Amino acid sequence: MFYKIHYQLVSIRITLTSKFHLQPTRTENIFAYNIPSSSCDYHLQSFFLRTVWDWNTLPQEIVQLGTVEAFRRALLTV
């Protein structure tokens, strides 16, 4: 779902900001998002915070795949 949100394949807006990496870092891809800080457990365990952390740590070649099906197949190898 986050892939679809990122590539605007669904009409869900996110309030997250991109980190704007020009090159992938050792731990994050170039499409990484800032993870908002929170002290509430229910917020820390929300879909967006958990999913953004997973998204940020995916390899660059996976987040750049052109279709949802290719993305799904690539996730099986991670």
Describe the structure.
The chain has 78 residues and is mostly helical. It has one domain (2-75). It is built from five helices and no strands. The two termini are 17 Å apart.
Entry keywords:
mainly alpha; globular; 78 residues; 40% helix
Q: How big a fraction of the residues is strand?
A: under 5%
**Share of helix among residues?**
25-40%
Unreliable residue stretches: none
Radius of gyration: 13 Å
What value does the average pLDDT take? 88
Count of helical segments? 5
Q: How are the elements arranged and paired?
A:
Elements: H1 2-6, H2 41-44, H3 47-56, H4 60-63, H5 68-75
Provide a quick synopsis of the model:
The chain has helices at 2-6, 41-44, 47-56, 60-63, 68-75. The protein has 78 residues and is mostly helical.
